[in-house]
Amino acid sequence: MSKGWENWTASEVEDFQADFLMWYQQEKRNLPWRYNQDPYRIWISEIMLQQTRVDTVIDYFYRFMEEFPTIQDLAKAPEDKLLKVWEGLGYYSRARNLQAAAKQIMEDFEGEFPTTVEDIRSLKGIGPYTAGAISSIAFEITEPAIDGNVMRVVSRLFCIEADIAKASSRTIFDEAMRKIISQTQPGDFNQAMMDLGSSICTPTNPQCEVCPIQQYCQAYQENRQAEFPVKSKKQKPKDVYYVAGIIENQQQEIFLKKRSETGLLANMWLFPLEEINAARYTELQEQYDPAAWDLFSSSNVAEDSPDFFSDQEVIWQKKILGEVKHVFSHLRWHILVFYGRSAAPLTIDGRWVKPDDFPGYVFPKPQQKMLEVFENNLADDKD
Ligand code: SF4
């Protein structure tokens, strides 16, 4: 069989589905959200699985279900508690969207998870992939769930040359999936696709020799697996440079600043950051090289103080504690971490917090890394 999906006959489609579903029955992964067809559990797992590996998600999933066992519990949860449970998973807008959608379900659907693709799509944070996954798995609706894994499998199966990075290619994959998806077991079919994409038809070195759909796969027959999927290069993340101030007061409290309500890391607590340009970043690296400076200066603050946070009266340690890098999908943060002691009340909005109370705060990854740098330095000081 070596032809596009348009030319598959009904009996070829049937054979393909039977082979593929039999493989799924035998090999399916035992995952906690697969124990039943509860749409709430499926929804939470699908949102967690975006950008995150299955192994990582499992523990988070259990904890989330324990804290918020129902849609109602999620809808009324305090945001801080929700983000704390999500801490470490990243992409925190996912958690906020979950809660916004839970509130929508309480208000617009009388607390019952909606049962049509259109209604599911109307929920905040749910796109075509997630709507396809929930509707097919929970309600057996014949709706494809197409993500990057599935596009890879389908592009190889039919040697589809459309660029998967382009939104316009989606209709092609949608059409192909609608041709082959099982009408009677669409949920299992979609999950079989997900499993195959993550375990066998992997981005590099697909294991074609054990693939259950090998005999149907056009790329395999033509030995062109490595050519698919066609994907144009992503733009590189933009570099952004910061200095971070770990500022301590006389009560041994450290200053934290809350980020604004919208945008990246909204409402999270971080040490205060100040953006600088790339050239200044390099200069500071040279000027405050930790190998060259080690003294805590309490001399003339105005003259000795570096130029960042210049509107604050802080006596800075004349060395970089460490450098932190963190990549978001579109940005790469570079942070030089400095330590200072406040010489007068700060004029930045924020709060003084005892380090013992840090565990009560939601710290995103860059903040966790900065804290690690600080703690390592404290440990060094004690050596
Ligand atoms: S035969 Fe190979 S390339 Fe084709 S679907 Fe299976 S693993 Fe992927």
Describe the structure.
The chain has 383 residues and is an alpha+beta fold. The protein has 2 domains: 5-227, Endonuclease III, domain 1 (Orthogonal Bundle), CATH 1.10.340.30; 238-382, Alpha-Beta Complex (Nucleoside Triphosphate Pyrophosphohydrolase), CATH 3.90.79.10. The chain is built from 15 helices and 8 strands. Strands 1, 4, 5, 6 and 7 form a 5-stranded mixed sheet that branches. A 3-stranded antiparallel sheet has the order 3-2-8, with no helix packed on it. Strand 6 (322-327) and strand 7 (331-342) form a beta hairpin. Helix 2 (39-49) packs antiparallel against helix 8 and helix 9 packs across helix 11 (186-199). Bound molecules: iron/sulfur cluster.
Largest sheet: 5 strands, mixed
Q: Which superfamily, in CATH terms, is the homologous superfamily of the largest domain?
A: Hypothetical protein, domain 2
What ions, cofactors and ligands are bound? Answer: iron/sulfur cluster
Looking at the chains present, what oligomeric state does this protein adopt? Answer: single chain
- Helicity, in percent? 40-55%
At the first level of CATH, the class of the largest domain is: Mainly Alpha
Structural class: alpha+beta
CATH architecture of the largest domain: Orthogonal Bundle
Question: How large, in whole angstroms, is the Cα Rg?
Answer: 26 Å
Number of domains: 2
Give the tally of β-strands: 8
The sequence of SSEs as H and E is HHHHHHHHHHHHEEEEHHEEEEH
Kindly estimate the percentage of residues that lie in beta strands according to DSSP: 5-15%
Pick out the low-confidence regions: 295-303
